[in-house]
Specification:
By secondary structure, the chain is an alpha/beta fold. About 40% of the residues lie in helices and about 15% in strands.
Length: about 280
C-alpha cells in the first residue's frame, strides 16, 4: 500500500496567491485526472489532498471532488481559526469524514506570530474534539513560534510539512537540524517527506544533495513518524513524480526494513490521518 499524503488540485482560473510568474508549469488546471497516469506508473493506492488556497469555498470544492474520485482518501482543508464562529463551523464540517484535518501555510513574509496568537490558539484547541490533525507549512522564520505551539498543545496531532523547508540549494543544514530535533522531541509531531525537490536548485540537483537532510529527519523522527508525500504538482518545478518516489525508496533500501518502508510509504499516513481505506468516505 502506497499513500501519497501531499497533493494539491486546483482550477487555474482562480490561481493561488503563492503561484508567481516564474512558476509557469503551474499556470494551468491540476485536477485528479491529471495525476492518474503518474499514480498508475508509481503504484499509488491513495491520496491525501491538501488545500491550495486559504478559503473555505475551496474546502467545499474538494469535498465535492472527493465524492467522484475514490483515490482521494482524505482532505486537509483551511479554516479561519480566528473566526468567532469557528467552533460551529467545525461542528458542521465534521459531517464530512473525508475532511481529516486542517492546514496553515505561512507566507514568506510572516514571522510566525499567528501561531502565538491567543485567539488563533483558541480556535486550534477545538480540533482535538473531532480528532482533526493540523499540517504546519512554514519557513525558517516561523520555526521558533511553531516549536512553542506544538509544545503548548501536546495532545493535538501536528505534522511538519516539507521537513520544515531546509535550504538544500545552499547546503544550509545546522540551524535546521537543531529545529528538526526540537520538533521530533514532541511525540505529537510527525514529519512529511514532501516538498524537498523545490528546496534544492530547480532541476539541477543530484540525489546525493538530499541524503544529509534525509539522514537528519530519519534519525530524529524514525520510520514510524515519517510520511511520504510528493507535493504534486509543485514538485514539477524541479523534477517529476518518479524521481522523488524513487529517491526516497532508494535511500531507504539498504538502511531500513521492509516494514519500515511500508510504514513511511503508506501505513503512517493511514495512522496519522486515521484514513478509512476500506470504504471511500463520502
Amino acid at each position: 500500500m502506497v499513500i501519497d499524503a501531499h497533493v494539491r488540485f486546483w482550477k487555474y482560473e482562480a490561481p493561488a496567491d503563492w503561484i508567481n510568474k516564474d512558476m509557469r508549469v503551474l499556470h494551468k488546471d491540476y485536477l485528479p485526472e491529471h495525476l492518474e497516469l503518474a499514480e498508475k506508473r508509481n503504484h499509488i493506492d491513495g491520496l491525501v489532498a491538501i488545500q491550495a488556497r486559504k478559503t473555505e469555498l475551496e474546502t467545499w470544492f474538494m469535498v465535492e471532488i472527493a465524492k467522484t474520485h475514490p483515490e482521494i482518501k482524505g482532505f486537509i482543508g483551511w479554516i479561519d481559526l480566528k473566526d468567532p464562529l469557528v467552533k460551529q463551523k467545525l461542528e458542521h464540517f465534521s459531517q464530512f469524514p473525508i475532511i481529516r484535518g486542517w492546514c496553515y501555510s505561512a507566507g514568506e513574509d510572516e514571522n510566525g506570530d499567528i501561531f502565538l496568537d491567543e485567539e488563533w490558539q483558541r480556535g486550534l484547541s477545538y480540533l482535538e474534539k473531532y480528532k482533526y490533525t493540523y499540517d504546519l507549512q512554514m519557513n525558517p522564520r516561523q520555526w521558533s513560534a511553531a516549536a512553542a505551539l506544538v509544545e503548548k498543545f501536546p495532545y493535538q496531532r501536528f505534522v511538519v510539512d516539507h521537513c520544515a523547508r531546509p535550504d538544500i540549494k545552499h547546503n544550509h543544514i545546522e540551524d535546521w537540524k537543531s529545529w528538526i530535533k526540537d520538533f521530533a522531541s514532541h511525540q505529537n509531531v510527525w514529519c512529511k517527506l514532501s516538498g524537498l525537490l523545490t528546496e534544492a536548485a530547480w532541476r539541477l540537483w543530484h540525489a546525493s544533495d538530499f541524503y544529509p537532510y534525509l539522514d537528519v529527519v530519519f534519525d530524529a523522527f524514525g520510520p514510524n513518524r515519517l510520511i511520504f508525500g510528493s507535493d504534486w504538482p509543485s514538485m514539477l518545478l524541479s523534477g517529476n513524480y518518479v524521481q522523488w518516489k524513487s529517491l526516497v525508496k532508494k535511500y531507504m533500501e539498504d538502511r531500513y526494513t521492509v516494514e519500515d518502508r511500508e510504514n513511511v510509504f503508506g501505513v503512517n499516513a493511514v495512522r496519522f490521518y486515521r484514513l478509512n481505506i476500506a470504504d471511500q468516505q463520502q
